[in-house]
Structure formats: structure tokens, C-alpha cells
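Lab notebook: predicted structure, single chain.

Context: the supervisor wants predicted structures on file for every construct in the current expression panel, including those that have not yet been purified. This is the next one on the list. No modifications to the sequence; it matches the entry in the shared construct table.
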Amino acid sequence: MQISTLIDLGWNHFFQSQLTLNELETQLPFRVSGVQRNLIDCIGMDSENHAQQVQISTYHWRNEEPENHPTVGDWLMLDTDFQPLKLLERKSQIQRKAAGQQAYIQIIAANLDTLFITSSCNDDFNLNRIERYLAIAAETNIHAVLVLTKKDLSSDPSEYLDQLQQSHPLLSVELVNATDPESVAVLKSWIGNGQTVALVGSSGVGKSTLTNMLKGTDDQDTAAIRESDSKGRHTTTSRSLHLLPDGGLLLDTPGMRELQIVDSEEGIHATFADISELAKNCRFGDCGHHNEPGCAVIAEVEAGKLDPRRLENYQKLLLEQLRNNESIAQRRQSDRALGKFYKQAKLSAKRFKSRD
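Prediction complete. Output recorded below exactly as produced.
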């Protein structure tokens, strides 16, 4: 696909409205297509409206919080020498608590219109994991579509569709064979010109194969899953933004072993809207839906009208995001205290030096 305007890259009024007339006349919007350790890959238009791909240093953001570092899908404003000036506000994002012991928010991708939550018709299928992605998408109003792959390898794909229908009847679902171009073509209806779609899911569900099919190339490496347990192997090692030949943009992500949910309470309530609505009828406003008297949610479970698995996952995600939010708040407070100590120490050193 040839870029003729910024609209092809997803530029719209949301981003343009963040700039003054002078900024629009003197600065260049570039979209982040990839992030390396020290370099950021960007694509945009130069001052003569020619498409350009440039690399800029991450040094500009060295003192910023990690969630304010540019990520794939972001829009940056550059000067005419392609030096960074600022990062524009995001209209949506996928985020998680950073893996390991690090207590900060990691932005996986930014400015998405649609999220392809990819699972498969085998042992990988996991409603709890799917609901985790749904909550993350709902938090910033990203439209979610479940892409269920490997239908050609399943003797009865309807069993997976039935589970989805019972738990999330309004969820958009596409059942595909990722190796069949005609089957994958149904996904193109979700990717219009200037629209950005991200593929997320475990390793081995077919994200790289889907990317190749939608791009019409073999750029992304693929690998077979283990037959013993349907586990996949990492073939995509970094996030990248791809321009599609029929218009639109596709963001591929590596399979994530750990997706700790953070700062997504509204998204959780939206994903489990039926439980949140039932909770309004509980006797106590702070009901935890365990064994409290007058709990409308537990009553629904006992009546066989609410799947106990969904309630358990709802409670788990709320507790997890609360715990992660607290750990991040504590780290920020610690960082502020440390920064204050350094400033005071520096000021004291200056005073001591002036006495000499």
C-alpha cells in the first residue's frame, strides 16, 4: 500500500485537535511502527508531503514514566529535521503491569480501533484469558472481535462457539482457518482505510499466519504447535505495525505469557456487566459476593442462572487490578520521595559549598 495522506496511517480529528495552527504548520506528525531498545521506527510525511520512514532516539524520553514512553501505534510530532518534539495523547491503549517484579504500567499498543483477540479450537481456548483481554479492551473503548482459529483441525468447533454464546452473547466472533485465504478474508471487513487493528493472543494460535494472510506476504515467521498440549512457540518477538494492501493497519504482537491487568476497573465491570448490574441489588453496598447475607449475585449462582466460573474470574480480576494499582502507586510515591531527597541533598551541598 502506498501512503498518500496521513489518513492512511490513522490520522484523524482526535489527534489534529491537540495541536495549534502554528504547530500544524511547522511540525510533522509521524506514527510509531516499531520500538527497539534505543531507536523508534516511525512513518509519516515530510514537509513536501512525501512518505518517509525515519528512526529517532529514545533519549528524549529518558526521564519520563514508562507509560509515557512512545509505543507502537503512538503519534509523535517531529520538527522538519525529524527530531522529536512531543508525544500526542492516546485515544486508546492496551496496557498491563510490567512482567516480573517491576511495578509500572507497560503500554503494549496505542491508538487502536479494533482488537482481534485470537484463540484457537484446541486446548488453548480459555474463557478466563479471553475475558482478561475483553476487560483491557473495554477500558479504553476498543471494539473487540474474537478470532477463533484452527477450525479445520477441530472435529466440532461449535462447542467453542456455544461456550462463547452462553458467556458473552454480544461478542463478535469470527471462526477461521488461518491458512485459507478465503476463510481469513472475512476479517478484512473489520479493517477499513485508516483503521488500526491489533492481534493479541497466546503463542501458537496463528497470529503470524493471520498477519501474513492479511498482508499477502510471508514476512512473519510461523511455527507448528506441540501436539501434546497445543502449546505454541514464540515466532513474533516484537510488536510491529503493518500497512495492509487494501488499506488499514495491522499491529502484530508476540504471544504474552503474563498479562497482569492494571488500572482497568471500568473495563472489568463492562465485561461482566450482568454481574455488576446484579450487585446493585445486594443488601450491602460493599458486598464482595462471597458469603454475605442478602447477596443478589450469589443467589443468581445458586439458582443456576449465573456461571460460577464467571463470578470467580470477575472477583479475581478486580482483586488483581487493585493489588497492581497499589503496587504502582507505592513505587511512584517511593520515586517521588527519592527525588525529593536528591533535590534536598543537592541544595544542601550548594549551601555547604557557598560557606566555604
